[in-house]
Amino acid sequence: MTTMTNKTDPSGDVRLTGIAKTYGAFTAVHPLDLTVPQGSFFALLGASGCGKTTTLRMIAGLEEPSAGTVFLGDQDVTALPPYKRPVNTVFQSYALFPHLDIFENVAFGLRRRGLKSVKKQVEEMLELVQLGEQARKKPHQLSGGQQQRVAVARALINHPKVLLLDEPLGALDLKLRRQMQLELKRIQTEVGITFIHVTHDQEEAMTMADTVAVMNAGRVEQLGAPTDLYENPRTTFVANFLGTSNFIEAEVDSTSGEEIVLKAGGGKLVLPEARCSAPAGTGGKVLVGVRPEKISLTHADDAGEIPEGRNRITGRIADSSFIGVSTQYVVDSPVCSDFEVYAQNIDRDPRLVPGAEVVLHWNPAHTFGLDAAQDADAGVEEAA
Ligand code: ATP
């Protein structure tokens, strides 16, 4: 299968400017500016009700925006009906025609456009989704994953500039979902067109997308590459929605231009300035975050062996669970109760059991800083 479009061709860019949707007094999507470049695999990620499907439907033309403009390349498509947009959508329900075989399901779009010789194109498309052998089966004779691949082939056969995917893997079991995530990624790389994928599953978004927009209450909270979002979350929502984070309330003691020294409990913590999204004047409050897998646990008796220069806090193990690849500890500390630590199961220290006094320590480079006032503000706005 050859690439259908050129990655540098901007005619497949999706550009939303000030796009918004209200239902009566309720705002489902607050004014949103967003550019999805041609050829990218973009994910809209968020919990149920955050506005991601509404955003997708406004791009498809299935929902009329209350304000703003949808551009495809340079073309303003805001007023165009769905069938006139060079966009196609794959939904969670495959919506295949049950009485038609797989070949005819995929050929449908071409036949509707009056094309007579469809064989080559349909066969190419079935090859792309690796269903060449199944062409003469009916949908009910295929697995859920195979049916979803037919739906993708059917959506791609008209060569849309953009493919929208609305929780397309939602009906599949976990193992099949994982396989299909890789499969969809391969298909997208092969055809090179823009994919915009809506999901509430953070692992799915991170596995597949080049860029993820995390949505919360009708707004994009943060947008970036998966690793960037995970390593440098800028809000507590993002820090908690993508994986797990531990938080310590701290106060700025001093800043050097490169590092911020913070007071927390009786001790000090170091945070790289570049990883702090809070205003960091002396005396200011910062919410210090660290991921559970970045932390090492050392029994308090061995505290002297911890290398210099690491952030450290003390605590007592409250709980531990062995889950095969790792052991997950919950540690109570004067600066944070329920501190989570994931330790790989290599050379486990048998003394690390509930009740043990421990030191938690980590490389300061793995620390991030958030605006402690932010959540309080969000709470006020929510309540207003
Ligand atoms: P889910 O994953 O559950 O589909 P979502 O993030 O895609 O969630 P949307 O479907 O975009 O969320 O809905 C956003 C908000 O807008 C929700 O609170 C929803 O109840 C509301 N909403 C959606 N459609 C309508 C409608 N036609 N009338 C009124 N409210 C609506």
Automatic annotation (TrEMBL):
Location of the ABC transporter domain: 14-242
Catalytic activity annotation: ATP + H2O + polyamine-[polyamine-binding protein]Side 1 = ADP + phosphate + polyamineSide 2 + [polyamine-binding protein]Side 1
UniProt xrefs under Pfam families: ABC_tran (PF00005), TOBE_2 (PF08402)
The organism's place on the tree of life at top rank: Bacteria
UniProt KW keywords: ATP-binding, Cell membrane, Membrane, Nucleotide-binding, Translocase, Transport
Any one GO cellular component localisation term in the record: ATP-binding cassette (ABC) transporter complex
Catalytic activity, EC: 7.6.2.11
Alphabetical list of SUPFAM superfamilies matching this protein: MOP-like (SSF50331), P-loop containing nucleoside triphosphate hydrolases (SSF52540)
NCBIfam families linked: potA (TIGR01187)
Family annotation (PANTHER family): SPERMIDINE/PUTRESCINE IMPORT ATP-BINDING PROTEIN POTA, SPERMIDINE_PUTRESCINE IMPORT ATP-BINDING PROTEIN POTA
Assigned protein family: Belongs to the ABC transporter superfamily. Spermidine/putrescine importer (TC 3.A.1.11.1) family.
Official protein name in the record: Spermidine/putrescine import ATP-binding protein PotA
Organism expressing this protein natively: Streptomyces variegatus
